[in-house]
Amino acid sequence: MSLTVHHEGVDSSTHPTKAQFGDVAGEFRALVSEAGIYDLSSRSRILLTGSDRTRWLNGMVTNNIRDLQPGYGVYAFLLNPQGHILGDLYAYNRGEALLVDTDQVQVEKILAVFDKYIIMDDVEVTNVTERHATIGIAGPKSSDLLHAAGFEVPELKPLQFAETTWQQVGATLIRGDNPCVESFELLLAPADLDKARQALIEAGAKSVGTDALNFLRIASGIPRYGVDIRERDLPQETEHGSHGRQTDAPVAHPCWIEPRLVEVEPRRQHLLDTLVEARHEQASNARVSHGCELR
Question: Can you give the pTM of this predicted structure?
Fold first, then answer.
């Protein structure tokens, strides 16, 4: 039996996240027609080790951890005994451990749930958020820009990851699961973050903030826990069903930017008008391999 929860210090103040960089419409266009890079310090990571880790986590979430192959991840809901959603997370099989990725605002609650349900299980839980810094990159030119910046980019399926090197520095490259645009996450040592970001910007990526990312999320039809999904919801009541997001097959519907899909404050109406115009401007070059179209 192991009932251990380790906390490695988390100081989010050292990782500022910007809402925008002065041109939200331009940032959105980069995400759907070129490539945008963004800060992911709002994500937290939990390492699960111990011989019972797979069976234990599989019993608490909505997706299949038991059959998850090394090098792959899944998206899932964390449930209470009554089947209500307590949070959402990604779980990656790193072979010797499971890596759980979740929003920073959820991490303390998820750690408390994990602690509560380790009973007679050989499971060790460690908050490893500060071990890595993470950069996101999204857009149809993401792979090309990563190559141009010197990163090796193997062919990856959604939520598949690979260990790679960049300028003699180790990094983990994760393929994202957005159904409408190609996306990746780079996990690096914190000391290498600024150098990697600068290399991507010099290769042509545009810095984007959380406002543009939120518009992309809405356009792609991806619900957010705490906004579109509530704690009292049951998994089958969400758009993505009992397992969460489906990442192993293309979506059947196009991804659109429409006025009726985006509710904004009056002061942001000009931005919305610009994004609706971008629907027509970018229709010809925003198609991606999943058969989705931002138009």
Answer: 0.79
